[in-house]
Amino acid sequence: MSATYDLYQEQILDHYKHPRNKGPLPGATLNAKDSNPLCGDEVILHLNLDGSHRISEVRFEGQGCAISQASASILTTMLKGLPRAEVEALNQDALLKKLGIPLSVVRLKCALLSHHVLRLAIGDKKADRA
Amino acid sequence: MAKPAKVLLNVPAIKADFPILQRKVHDRRLVYLDSAATSQKPRQVIDATSDFYARYNANVHRAIYELGEEATREYEGAREKIAAFIRAKSPNEIVFTKSTTESLNVVAYGYGLKGKLQPGDEIVGTVMEHHSNHVPWHFVKDHKGAVLKYVDVTDEGTLRMEQYDELLTKRTKIVTVALCSNVLGTINPVKEIAKRAHEVGAVCVVDAAQAAPHMSIDVQDLDVDFLAFSGHKMLGPTGIGVLYGKPEALEATEPLLGGGEMIREVHLGRASWNDVPYRFEGGTPNIAGAIGLGVAADYLTKLGMDAVRAHEMEITQYALEKFERLQGVKTYGPKDVKKKAGVLAFTIDNAHPHDVASILDVEGICIRSGHHCAQPLMERFDLPATARASFYVYNDLEDVDALVAGIKRVQEVFA
To answer: What is the ipTM of this complex?
Structure first.
């Protein structure tokens, strides 16, 4: 296929249509929510840590474009079982690499919304507006 | 499919006037369907602005030399053209601003905030306004204690006119409304609304950003007090806008920008104002922009605004019929093109508007996606966002066909 569909590769569409770890997680210890006012994309992230500070449970909720929602779904698959220190070290590039799609400046905001919510969830004071 | 043979505008000749339409996007023919955001510019307008800089660049109204005379003549000539374009009585009723937004802010600030309004006075708007006709009135509420009221829309997307019966009172001082919605395309009965406003002693302020480029406007027939529009949506340059005001309305308006040009006399600590419209044009104006806008008005006048409107009605009708046959696609706003301009908001099941726009982009098709700076209206229809195609003089039925084919591609991707 042409350039079209660089953005909408199988992995992205698969995660958009069949999101992993989607739904509420009542009583989760870490929760955060943010939206992209330009698009109306919204991502809510719920995390539970176990006794050894690893992510034992992760869920997301949200609505929005395929890029924002697939990104959130992919992020959750990256988080499960990760020690807190590695979650804190997980940077934007790691997520973008996993997405593996070319992104314009505008669409980058969609792709990184879930990462920003993760930073908010783990209490990163520097998590200002993405 | 066979195309209707009706020729209202010579679109191939028009397309040839627009250099940008000769370029390709992603190796595809450029199909520009976002004129409601900004229109493309014909060679005539581009040349007129560059000609100003190349041949007679000088400041207006002051220079006592030939270049300054020429610049002033062309700038004031543009004012005359715009007055004629909307059938104002006099060029003195035309204020050049930078945009519709600035025009509406001049009225909200100068007539509302600093003008006659008293705390508790009421401003009646509508839920279908663009943010630029919401937020300036918020300032008047916040800083003057004005009360804001809004007329709702029907599910079809037309104003619930009967609500004016209860919303308009002796306390109503300003009634404001878009002549044409930038999302629904609804053309509002502004003449009737202005009449109702005047019956309670209020002024009528009209946002004509989406109307001025697309239909004939007669401010005397509409009998509105203020009317705002932008150059860049009507084939003109960016950074130039217009505020029309009746003389008595402009006289009752305090200037927003203090500085050069807008004064008669300045002393330490005090100044007196220049006459309207110059009172509202503090600072060196966008001279090239105004001249370019004048040429854009010439271009549209030559096509004939009634022909422009008829052309867009034909394209919109064709698009509505095509969309009607698309499964899983919903359109918003009136279905009757007599009530609707060439603005078509739509959503596709299972595809977010941003994804729709991204996929159409790869097909060379430019549409808008998002809330279109009309969040209160989106809330009214409980929509986070929509896609929006909008049509203009350089669009034809083939462009609609390209859009429909693109939508089918979107549906394949998100099937």
So the answer is: 0.85
